[in-house]
Write a structure and sequence with these properties.
The structure is a homodimer.
Chain A lengths: L1 E11 L4 E9 L4 E8 L3 E6 L5 E9 L4 E5 L2 E3 L11 H13 L1 E13 L8 E12 L13 E7 H9 L6 H14 L5
Helix pairs in contact in A: 2-3
């Protein structure tokens, strides 16, 4: 167990807070931890009636590539520091990134993306009974440039296994869907 | 596509580099990106002859909890900036964190843990034909305090589905193993 005894914030950005925490252990020893503070995020496996999942291709600077991912995004944070409800954020992100709404929502799980250095908690959902938002436009966030595509879910899972879908939340989401869809596994 | 035109490093730690990159798009617009630079990491699904997987429980400050995870760790970086080979790092981390060696290694996949803000690339392995290192001690890294435990792989997968194993690399690793073990899925 570690207790934070000092926290030095180096930078507060739109989503990230770069900080160096000093922790004290039960034995009294002190250590520093570099932490990328994050408000949390949502990711959505959107499955249509034909068994296809919605995927978005987006430029990811850290990967220096356009990655194929499930729709996702960070929780909004209000001026008073209050975080957006993940259930609402999932609906907002799905609509913003794909122009879709879903009548049926199921929370699959919640996990840390990289618990060694960030508190980003990812809330993962399955969205079904999809419909297009008539007045919607793709990518209203001017800072995002997304391309929507659809893949039969088995092909998407295979793409993850081949390394063509290569971010953690998307792989977790697709494998989770595969487990739900394949009675033989459970 | 985005091209980095300026990179301002705020902090260089043991693993992380906090920086603010300025990028230019094809349309000439400029944007800033907060990036947590990371050398990359390895994670190991270690499966014994009885069908049990090795799990380590470790305090994770960002989660403010001791998380149950598969053995993992960052790539070492030499003074000249050269990164450790992931194949070797996987062997080193497995031995350091569990006191185990494996005669058979298989690379399962490579993925970004959180490509929105970090370039951490996770190299995932399956290790089998395990043996204990006689002279080994657990957690030689004085900065780590690990508790090793073993779970039948189906129970570990179920623990992930129940939210008891809740970090991305571990869920990906366990679900990947489940897919390999369950012919019905493929």
């Amino acid at each position: 167990m570690e207790r934070v005894v000092e926290s030095r914030v180096l930078h507060r950005g739109k989503f990230l807070e770069f900080r160096i925490d000093t922790v004290e252990r039960l034995d009294g020893s002190r250590h520093t931890r570099d932490i990328a503070g994050h408000p949390g995020a949502v990711a959505v496996v959107a499955l249509d009636a034909a068994g296809r999942v919605a995927l978005v291709r987006q430029w990811r600077l850290p990967a220096d590539a356009a990655l194929l991912e499930i729709p996702a995004g960070g929780l909004d944070v209000a001026d008073d520091g209050a975080k957006e409800d993940p259930d609402l954020a999932a609906r907002r992100e799905l609509e913003e990134e794909t122009g879709l709404r879903a009548a049926t929502w199921r929370k699959l799980g919640t996990f840390y993306t990289a618990p060694g250095f960030t508190d980003e908690l990812m809330h993962l959902y399955l969205a079904t009974d999809l419909s297009a938002v008539v007045e919607g436009r793709l990518g209203p966030d001017a800072d995002e440039a997304l391309i929507l595509s659809w893949l039969p879910w088995r092909e998407a899972v295979a793409a993850a296994e081949r390394g063509e879908i290569r971010d953690a939340k998307s792989i977790v989401g697709l494998f989770w869907l595969a487990r739900l869809r394949s009675d033989g596994v459970r």
